[in-house]
Amino acid sequence: MSVRFGAILCALFAVFLSASVELKAQAVVPLSEYGKLPDVEQTAISPSGRRVALLTTVQGNRVILMIEDQAKLLSSVMVDDAKVASIRWVGEDRILMINRQTQRLGARFTTNKAEIFTGRVIPVDEKDKGGVIFANRPQILEMIVGNYGVREIEGKYYGFFGGFELVKKNGSRAQFVFGHGRPYLYRVDLRTLKTQVVSGAARPGFIKDWLIGDDGEVVATLSASFESGKWQVRNANGIVVLEGQTADARVSLVGLGQDGTTFVMSDRVGDLEFEWFEASLAGGGTREVFLEDKDVGRAFWDNKTGHYLGYQTSGDEPRLTFVNETLNKNSDRIARTFNTFRTRLTAWSEDYGTVLVRTSGNKDSGTYYSVDLANKKAGAIAYERMAIGPAEVGEISTFEYTASDGTALDGILTVPPGMEAKNLPVVVLPHGGPAGHDTARFDWWAQAFASRGYAVFQPNFRGSTNRDEAFMRAGFGEYGRKMQTDKSDGLMALAEAGLVDADRACIVGASYGGYAALAGVTIQRDFYKCAVAVAPLSDLRDRYNYRYRQSGRERTRKADLLEQMGDPDLWDQYSPLKRAEEANAPIMLIHGVDDTVVPYSHSSKMADALKDAGKPYELVTLKGEDHWLSLSATRQEMLSNAVRWVETHNPPN
Q1: How far from chain centre, in Å, is Cα 334?
Q2: Mind listing the pLDDT tens digit for each residue in 315-347?
Q3: Number of C-alpha atoms within 13 angstroms, CB side, residue 495?
Q4: Which residues are CB-neighbours of 8 under 8 A, at least 6 positions away?
């Protein structure tokens, strides 16, 4: 998978840099520029702040570039179609890359396919040793089951990973087979890849979780029983410092506290809710709610020590709060500097003096900046979509409206570049989840439709996560009901405001959004001229059975699913598969065969039902693709087909 560049390396980098300096406007941007993976997918910064790694595509070659001082190319490695989950520097001279891939499983597992993770060390100097985590140990399965962090110990970097120990096959001295699904904790020297066991696996019927201190030692071990739900946390001395009981052991360790003397854990506090608690590693048996009454969208832990750093609020205008006063002030300065865009801090140096920032929004299809806070300098280092300049970004805004039952709602409206929002054809594009939400940022799917002359509306219906927990829970049991009418209520509100033409609307979505697209023309009906459903769930009962089976038939998972999905007696009534004969608009189904979240059968069975009912439909099968559209080629295939379907059945002009 990893092949070094040869003579074309410098030429490719020169093209990348020149493209990053100037974005050239085009009259019509090809759909492929929206559908492909971004030109820059991920960034990472070294501890000193001098070196940056970019996961990028240069002249069709998908590579990781390692750059020094924003100008000097140090090295590069090709990653082809690898599904890269993350990249990070481990010291100044190597990168740790975590990949994921879809793996078919045997009969002894609760599901046929799963996403597995592997780790690879990539040195800057190709003469240095790199390689795959666990590859040099035949008695360990070559996959990562939990990433517990990286620590620097006496100048050396070690990674801590969960892994499956294999056992010798009967009668063989060299062949190993899978033993059990309870991971051991290993310490891996990220220079030599030498591996040693740090902690043994859990007992049968138990789970284990660990926290690693800044010295590389295990400072907390959680052990929990699946049968009784009883759990204990022991410190480095083996002393029980906290214990309790939670149904089916739904507990986990999250991270260390601000000064490393406490730990943070996640515990179930209701049938569905989880809460974070903080307790002392010295013991005492008491715990306090962590970040109580805070609107936490994301929490941060220090890469070097594992200590708590701060949090980011959720919602349309996220704010950052750090315990480190320097980082706190710097984040405020950055927010003020880029206040016209949606801003995200992606990485920072160990001294917090250099920060990588990503911006997105109106007239910005995604830009990465390196911010030198000490010298008060900021410069763009890369663009996510170099072919989509400021003039090609459709205007993005938040539209507020009221649902038919009086609930206050909002959604994101994107209009075609350079066009007035007046009586436009519209694509309703609900998000997946349904626990998720859309914000006023550049969205490649929405912008693709906008570039073809459509207004795009992304409703944050009840069940979304852009407000409080009560709003999210208001979506429980509302599949095909209030969650569905929230979308059409938004469409009608836009039409009443004169922004769109409600008679020229299609509905498009993926995952739960795909369900909403199907429901919009089978269950609700009479609002949309066509539907495009990508990786949709079409049968609520099958969805429940699949998720319950995946969990190992846990009682708490059953309760969660029933609460979210509502009365089982109504599932058939609100399943598009069961209402295929009522479809009153053409339906396109698009699905990846390697989907481990919503099986491909949800689309294939829906296609069969539409065929039997004599309804217009088309099924597009994405070979080798997963639920998240991780591959550039199949992502473009999805987009070109989706746009073709909408243009055919709801022309923009």
Answers
A1: 24
A2: 666 778 888 887 788 778 877 878 777 888 888
A3: 16
A4: none
